[in-house]
Amino acid sequence: MTEVDSSSNEVWRPHVTVACVVADGDRYLMVEEEVSGRIAYNQPAGHLDDLESLQQAAVRETREETGWTVALTHLIGVHQWRSKEHGDVVVRFSFAAKPLSHDPQQPLDTGIRRALWLTRGEIAALGERLRSPMVLMSIDDWLAGQRLPLSIVASLMPGGSRP
């Protein structure tokens, strides 16, 4: 049964987001961004757009936020969390990806200050400056060997993948 907010007659929906854990040796691709007047750190991540597959969204967000073109290799996991920023539930699909090429001339998304490569220790040391606990969780899941085949996430959207 779908829950309806009786005050607005709107159906409740979580924010569906994607993120990429992009590793280069012991360093991970991160973004430094301005969020609600503070500096936060995150993997390349963002919302799923209409008519877009989860895989397409993950590759697009990584390119838009960092200038890096990546190839997805695995699904790391699906994480759920209530955002302290806006109070809504976020469902995040975290993918592993390998870097293919970088375009330093690529304009970065609004709010993104820069892309940088950090070790897991440097990321953990950011503490409360991480955008969410899902940042470190997805890296730790990847380091623990959690890798699901991309075929587990099927899409019937145009250009999507279906096993």
From TrEMBL:
Superkingdom of this protein's organism: Bacteria
Cofactor(s) this protein cannot do without: Mg(2+)
Keyword annotations: Hydrolase, Magnesium
Gene Ontology molecular function terms on file: hydrolase activity
InterPro entries according to UniProt: NUDIX_hydrolase-like_dom_sf, NUDIX_hydrolase_CS, NUDIX_hydrolase_dom, NudJ
EC number: 3.6.1.-
Span of domain Nudix hydrolase: 13-143
Subunit description: Monomer.
Family indicated by similarity: Belongs to the Nudix hydrolase family. NudJ subfamily.
PANTHER family cross-referenced by the UniProt entry: NUDIX HYDROLASE 23, PHOSPHATASE NUDJ
Protein name: Phosphatase NudJ
Organism: Dyella acidiphila
